[in-house]
Specification:
single chain, 343 residues, alpha/beta, 4-stranded mixed β-sheet, 13 helices, elongated
Length: 343
């Protein structure tokens, strides 16, 4: 009988347990509840600690970004508290001479140093000659071309386009159109040309020596760069990198080119200093000294043919015309360095 009672009690307990689970009436014991609360509190504390650590890492990263750009510099971490003024070179700052030298060295090597050969400015040898281009387009006849070529040979000077105008009766606009076809580029005009603004783009000697004629800036993003007889692609690329503007290259009719060039050369250009150095190491040392002495808020280096062109901005917050083009010639100073063997 006692065994039957015990069996009945067990059965009833099992049924009650099942009914309790079905009604979701489970209640944790006080010890289990306390343990669960402790675990949740520990997780919350851990989340706070991780968030705090991330905040510190982000803060240090921001300070590092505004400090010395040399990753191996031991002083750079503390520089933001020591000084608020330090030279910047190509968007990065340096806390001391060795660190700036590292930045300049990387830029000089990027631009080619002594290993890069002098870029040739002559027209590409494999382009179809202008006379044949114009003959194929039906703009001249074969007798016109032969007369112009004969006159060119006899005189030993001049371009074929000039002789087509002189001997073939062509107008300058037709020759310019032919140059556009030869170089696969547009024919540009001087419409909207403002010489006082365009003089801010490059040193005067680049206009005189290489025939670079900046014409206008469109939409604060696009710079139209004109040439007379051929395109100087490497020079255009250097201008593009210095100004941070997209370049549209094209040819300009000869008379218009000479007229606008004269207006440009009559304008005020940024101050420029030219210097010849003997070695790449001397070049690096000179650029470093210039940037540090000026405490430049912005400085940039590009190579245009044999010239290492360093542009230094004189003050923070100088107004820009577009890209990195200054609005006033007083705001920047240009330095042109050539390595002795390339001079």
């Amino acid at each position: 009988m006692f065994s039957d009672n015990r069996a009945e009690a067990k059965r009833r307990a099992a049924v009650e347990s099942m009914l309790s689970l079905a009604r979701d009436e489970y209640r944790a014991s006080p010890a289990a509840a306390a343990q669960r609360e402790s675990v949740l509190a520990a997780q919350e504390d851990g989340s706070r600690a991780v968030a705090s650590l991330r905040e510190k890492v982000d803060s240090i990263a921001k300070l590092r970004a505004g400090g010395c750009a040399n990753p191996n510099c031991k002083q750079g971490w503390m520089m933001p508290w020591r000084t608020k003024k330090r030279p910047f070179f190509e968007g990065r700052s340096a806390c001391k001479g060795d660190c700036m030298t590292l930045l300049v060295r990387a830029a000089v090597l990027r631009e080619g140093g002594e290993r890069r050969s002098h870029a040739v400015t002559a027209p590409h040898r494999h382009r179809v000659p202008l006379g044949l281009v114009m003959l194929a387009q039906g703009w001249i006849t074969n007798p016109q071309l032969q007369r112009a070529l004969a006159s060119q040979r006899e005189s030993g000077r001049g371009r074929i386009g000039e002789w087509l105008i002189a001997e073939g009766g062509l107008d300058a606009e037709s020759v310019t159109r032919g140059l556009g076809v030869q170089w696969n580029c547009p024919v540009l005009s001087g419409d909207g040309f403002r010489p006082e603004s365009m003089a801010m783009i490059l040193p005067r000697c680049f206009v005189e020596k290489y025939g670079l004629l900046p014409l206008r800036i469109a939409g604060s993003q696009l710079l139209y760069l004109g040439f007379q007889n051929h395109l100087d692609v490497s020079a255009a690329y250097a201008i593009e990198r210095m100004t941070e503007l997209q370049i549209e290259r094209g040819v300009v009719e000869q008379r218009e080119f000479e007229r606008e060039k004269a207006r440009l050369l009559a304008s005020l250009f940024p101050e420029v200093e030219s210097e010849v150095v003997l070695t790449t190491e001397e070049l690096i040392a000179r650029i470093t000294k210039v940037v540090e002495d000026a405490m430049a808020p912005r400085a940039k280096l590009v190579r245009l043919h044999q010239h290492f062109w360093l542009r230094v901005w004189k003050q923070t917050g100088a107004k820009l015309e577009a890209g990195t083009v200054p609005s006033r010639f007083e705001d920047v100073h240009d330095y042109l360095f050539t390595v002795g063997a390339e001079h």
